[in-house]
Design a protein that fits this description.
Elements: E1 12-17, H1 37-45, E2 52-58, E3 98-102, H2 119-125, E4 130-136, H3 138-151, E5 155-164, H4 172-183, E6 186-188
Parallel strand pairs: 1-2, 1-4, 2-3, 4-5, 5-6
The chain binds pyrazine-2-carboxylic acid (VGL) and zinc ion.
Zinc ion binds near residues 60, 66, 74, 77 and 78.
Length: about 190
């Protein structure tokens, strides 16, 4: 049975991190089962009355510093305006979704959706103080976003069944969850990941 979704209201934001083709099976930097987050997130996206729905996307120029041909750790991925950078076609983002672009500076990476994107200020401007975060990848951009959000003073809930790890090293995903919990994030549903 699917887990129940808590009651969300105007102080809540749903933050969908980087659910893009390149992070799904068949993409340039595939996360195992990355596409499995889509139906789970769609259930959350169907909840009405939240303060904001936010969707970030990794949005790199072709010569980005994180790419292997510039000595970075990753194969070329999420190049601006390519199919790989598009949101997964089944993700049902509402029309009023705030789209956040990150990683557009060729010489700097931005794993967190709150890293100098203006999102923190925009959320505070709407008196949103509670974030529900899922997406890809658990151990990279979701991790960075959750830790930044905690630093910024938000109450943070990781939607654990709406995220998957890239697991460059085995166990990276599990370690990321531990780190987020220790930093103060609530892991939803708490029971399954206790
Ligand atoms: C990501 C690796 C490189 C992510 C972005 O969205 O988690 N991972 N760029
Ligand atoms: Zn990237």
């Amino acid at each position: 049975m699917a887990d129940p979704i808590p009651e969300l209201g105007v102080r809540d934001a749903l933050v969908v991190v980087d659910v893009q083709n390149d992070f799904c099976p068949g993409g340039a930097l595939p996360v195992a089962e990355g596409d499995r987050v889509v139906p789970v997130l769609n259930r959350w996206l169907a909840v009405v009355g939240v303060g904001a729905v936010v969707a970030s996307r990794d949005w790199h120029p072709r010569n980005h510093v994180s790419f292997e041909d510039r000595g970075g750790p990753w194969p070329r991925h999420c190049v601006q305006n390519t199919r790989g950078a598009a949101f997964h076609p089944d993700l049902r983002l509402p029309g009023e979704t705030w789209i956040i672009h990150k990683g557009s500076d060729p010489d700097r990476d931005q794993y967190s959706a709150l890293d100098r994107t203006g999102l923190t200020e925009r959320l505070r401007g709407r008196s949103i103080d509670r974030l529900w975060i899922g997406g890809l990848a658990l151990d990279v951009c979701v991790r960075a976003t959750v830790l930044d959000a905690l630093d910024a003073g938000f109450e943070v809930h990781l939607i654990a069944d709406a995220t998957r790890a890239v697991d460059v090293e085995p166990g990276d995903g599990a370690r990321a969850i531990d780190e987020m919990r220790r930093a103060g994030a609530a892991i939803e549903p708490e029971t399954r990941h206790a």
